[in-house]
Each structure stands twice: as structure tokens, then as C-alpha cells.
Amino acid sequence: MTTDLLPFRATRRWWRAHPLGGDALLALGVLVAMVVGSYADPHGPHGPTFGDRSPDPASLVLMVLGAAVLVLRRRRPMAVLCATNALSLLELVTAPPRAPVAMCTVVALYTLASRTDRPTTWRVGLLTMVGLTGVAMLVGPFPWYAQENVGLFAWTGMAAAAGDAVRSRRAFIDAIRERAERAERTREEEARRRVAEERLRIARDLHDVVAHHIALVNVQAGVAAHVMDKRPDQAKEALAHVREASRSALNELRATVGLLRQSGDPEAPTEPAPGLARLEDLVDTFRHAGLPVHVAVDVTDGPGADGPGADGPLPAAVDLAAYRVIQEALTNVRKHAGPDARAEVSVVRVGPSVEVTVLDDGGTAADPSPLPGPADGGGHGLVGMRERAVALGGTCSTGPRYGGGYRVHVILPV
């Protein structure tokens, strides 16, 4: 079936590539049809005959002019229709034998209907149908009820209807194609947006992991170097914490980078993402680094929790976000607060939300607001906390406390 359609496809491609040549061929075909039709006599003594009459020179001139005008039917459809109507009316008012000059009007009316809107099609089509048929009935050489007059009305009406149908189908196909292209663009934009969000999420995780563990390694390494000669046992303990922190950093980096692997990769890590269940282990790493941390957690569900969404465990995304916020906030306290700083961590489930608060007293640092924001030349920690909260529909507020220290408060909807 595909092989049989190849010639038609080639013809269609040539027609679209050479529209003027195609219109010239169509005009030639219409001219041949009009000339051949002018030899037919529907009113013969024994019925329709062919070859018993021939067109007069004036009719031949009108047919040639009508066919020649059709060459411009695509460029000037309204002008071509008016010209063919004039030629057809001129032929209708002449004495018999009548030639089928109106055939060029049928083609011109179809072209106009297929290239304009529906109201214009029906206004011009009705005017052409009524005008030609009325003139043929009133001043023509045949009775008003002759089949030529009825045929003229039918052919012009079918030309307008066929052109309108072709225009509607073409508009329908264009609309489908435009919707498909728009849907494809939307899919591509959505894919790019998801890729950007995933890259940002992985960047946040990498920053949290690296900033936390490297800060602890740096602190413990400094302690080990300071007490290496005088208190080797304490230096050995500090190096053990360094080894533990580096091992944890490598494990979390492997888990994060493993997200970039294919799902079927057997080497991809399957360990779940950290959450509040591992909060005590996280806090212990800071305590070993010399930062006293007090923790208060109350995320109890069931009858004791009020508000919608209070029942059930925390969603995985909220659990991970709370863990990462606490990790980043304590890392900033350890890096920027004074050497005698103390921290407090509070995780409370209030109605449909979980509130995470991390406070520090600033220690003995001279700067009462030790945690730098992005505008102060700091890193991406505070930005990452805000992005995590906003991604879940929550809020994040940070700022210095009165009397010294810093406060991080995050609300995460459950």
C-alpha cells in the first residue's frame, strides 16, 4: 500500500514546490473539460448527444479567458472569482449553444472557500449561486426550470461546501499539530525544570555532607595537633573521631552520588536517606568535637497531636529536610560561634507542621551574629536551608539573637 502511494506523494510534493505550475496545469485541465463539454448537447432529438454541436468563437474566447484567470487563483482568489463570474454571466446571456464557462467559476469559488473564513464563504457562495442561477433563469435561452440552471445552482453550492470542508479539515490538522508541538515544548521544559531541581537537590546534599564532616575533621585535627606532644591519649581519641567523621562523610557522599547511577546498577547504594531517627548520632559527632548540644524532640503522633495531618509518621521528605537543617545549623555553630558556645535543638510537631529550631549562645565570640549569610561572604548553608523549606511549602527564618548567638527556625508542613 505504501508503494502504491509513492507516485501521489511525489506529485503532491511537486505541486507544493511549484504552486504556479500546478495552477497552470489545473487551468489547462479545466479548459479541456469546458471545450469537451461544449460539444455535448443535452437536448438532442433522442436524448443527450455528443459531437452534434460545436462552440462558437466567442464561447471559445470566454473559455480561454476563464481558464487563464484560474492561474492566479491562489494569489488573488476574490479577484479571480469576480472575473470568472463576469465571464460566466456574459456567456449566460448569449444565444445558444451555451458553453460550460461556469466551470471555471466553480473552481474559483472552491479556491476562495478553502482559503477564507466561513462567513465570507457563505456570503460570497450564496451571492454567486443566486446571481448566476437567477440570470440563467431570467435571460437565458432555456426555460427557467431547465436542467442546466439546476445543475449550475448545485455545482456552485457543492464548490462552496467542499472548499469550506477542506478549510475546516486543514485548520483542524493545524490545530492538532500546534497542540502536539506545544505539548512537546512543555515536556521538554518540564524535563529541564526537573533536571535543574534534581541538580539543586543533589548540590544541597553534597554541601551539607561535605560542610558538616569536613568541619568536624578540621576541628578534631586541630585538637590532635595541639595535644599531640603533651596528651597523646587525647590526640589519639581526636584522630579516632577524625577517622569516624571521614568514614561517615565517604558513606554519605557515596549514597548521594549513587543517586546519579542507573536504578539497575548493582553498585548503587540502597541505604535509606538520613532522618530524625539518626539525630542522636549526628549530635554525638558535634559533642565529640567539643560543642555541647541539648536536644528536645517531640514528634509524637496519634491522640496527642492536634490538627490535620498530625497522625502518622513524618513524610520522608520532611524527615530528611529536618535532619539536614539541624546538620547545617550545628555545623555553622561549630564553625562560626565562639569556642565556649552551646547549642540547643528543638523539633516539635505542632498541628499540621513540624517546627525545627536551632539556637546558640555565641560563646565568647566578639561578633554577636556569628553566622554569616550569603551577603556577608558566607557559603550556601543558609540558602540551602531556605530552599529545602520552600520546596516543601514551608518557611525558614534566621537571624541573630538578642544578647548574642544565632537562631534558625524552620517550619515544615507535614
Concise structural overview:
With 414 residues, this protein is α+β, with helices and mostly antiparallel strands. It is built from eleven helices and seven strands. Helices cover 60% and strands 10% of the residues.
Task: Give a description of the structure.
This protein is α+β, with helices and mostly antiparallel strands and 414 residues long. 60% of the residues lie in helices and 10% in strands. It has 11 helices and 7 strands. Strands 3-4-5-7-6 form a 5-stranded mixed β-sheet, with helices on one face. The chain has a two-stranded antiparallel sheet with strand order 1-2. The longest helix is centred in the middle third of the chain and has 81 residues. The radius of gyration is 43 Å and the shape is rod-shaped. About 6% of the residues have low confidence.
